[in-house]
Amino acid sequence: MNHFKFKQIFLLLAISGTFFVSCTKTQKNEATEEAPIVANTEDLSKQDTIKITLNSNDKMQYDLSEIDVYEGQTVILTLHHKGTMPKAAMGHNFVLLTQGTEISTFANDAVKASDNGYIPTDKTNIIANTELIGGGETTEVTFNAPIKGTYDFLCSFPGHYSIMKGKFNVK
Ligand SMILES: [Cu+2]
Q: In this protein, which residues make up the domain named Blue (type 1) copper (predicted)?
C-alpha cells in the first residue's frame, strides 16, 4: 500500500516537473524572440555597407535631423522627395560638409551654382552630395564614411538650409 502511494506521488511529481520545464522553455523562447532587436543594433556597426533613407517634402523638410553611421562603412544614402512641387520651386538635395565648414557660408556660396544643382564646382568642402530632385523623384549617393566625428548635412537649394539641415554622426 505504502509503496503504491509513493509511486503515485512520484508520478505526480514527474508530471508537474515536465509541466514546469515546458513553462520555463516557453518563457525562454519569448526572451530569445526579443533578443534579435539588440543583436541587429550591434550588427549595424559591423556591416560593411549601411543604407540610409532620407525623405523630404513640399514643406521644406527632411524626416531626419540625425544620421548615424560607423567608421569605415560604405554609405548608400537614398533621398526621396515625397512632395509634388517641381525642382525649380522646391528642389532638394543632400550635401555632407567637411568639418569646419560653416553651413551658412557654404549655402550662400552654393546659391551661385544654380546651373549645377546648387553644388559649387569647387567641391573642397563637400564629402558627398546627391543631385537636386523635385517632387516624386528619388536619388542616391554612395560614399565612404569619413573618420569618426560629427558632420553637418544640408539641402543647398536657396533658403532651405535654415530648416533642412542635420547632424551626420560617424561612430
Ligand atoms: Cu531643399
A: 50-171
